[in-house]
Write a structure and sequence with these properties.
- With about 190 residues, this protein is mainly beta.
- Helix content is about 5%, strand content about 50%.
- The chain has a 6-stranded antiparallel sheet with strand order 8-9-10-11-12-13, with no helix packed on it. Strands 1-7-6-5-4 form a 5-stranded antiparallel sheet, with no helix packed on it. A two-stranded antiparallel sheet has the order 2-3.
- Strand 11 and strand 12 (about 170-175) form a beta hairpin.
- The longest helix has 7 residues, at about 40-45.
């Protein structure tokens, strides 16, 4: 994955007031090309849906996509504005532009995201719905990035998980394991 100038971009985040009226927008959503931009905004929003996590002191956030290998890291300014630090584009969604339907063989990317003061933790699937519809929405690899979007390391688990959180001192991962019944598991980490 690399920092990438894409086919184009549109505003991705909007502040709204208590009456859901637009206040201001910031951030951008990449899109592949003009053909993709012509599909409805609702369909594009579905294709580019993802998760975001904010660190505990509200100074930065990470946004990771479910259906595309795209990560965005933002600094949060004291006035609430976001400044893009880096966007890494590894792939775009694999879909039918006429219907917005995802290809069954398209991989699922980031299932869950968690941020501590030092790191962003991203639960990666890499599986697809065609091969195993149940396993596509679980993962056993946690990618770790610093707040500037530099890859630090991968954590490989011996069990598939669905959601996770990390202790404030980055020493332990807590997760819900993929089992017939939900199981809470924890993993110790040795971070420098």
């Amino acid at each position: 994955m690399k920092n990438h100038t894409c086919g184009g971009a549109e505003r991705i985040f909007e502040y709204v007031d208590g009456g859901l009226q637009f206040v201001k927008g910031f951030g951008v959503r990449s899109y592949r090309n003009d053909e993709e931009f012509k599909i409805s905004g609702t369909t594009r929003s579905e294709l580019y849906q993802g998760r975001l996590a904010v660190n505990p002191s509200d100074t930065w956030l990470v946004h990771a996509l479910l259906r595309a290998n795209i990560l965005s890291f933002y600094d949060i300014q004291p006035n609430g504005d976001l400044n893009l630090v880096t966007e890494q584009v590894g792939s775009y969604p694999d879909c039918d532009y006429n219907t917005g339907a995802m290809a069954l063989s398209a991989p699922i990317y980031y299932l869950d995201v968690y941020a501590t003061e030092r790191y962003a933790y991203l639960l990666y699937s890499g599986k697809n719905y065609k091969e195993d519809k149940n396993k596509a929405f679980v993962g056993n690899i946690i990618e770790v990035y610093d707040r500037e979007g530099h890859h630090v390391r991968n954590l490989s688990l011996d069990i598939d998980i669905q959601v996770m959180c990390v202790s404030p001192n980055d020493s332990k991962v807590y997760a819900i394991a993929f089992q017939p019944n939900s199981i809470l598991v924890s993993f110790d980490m040795n971070f420098p």
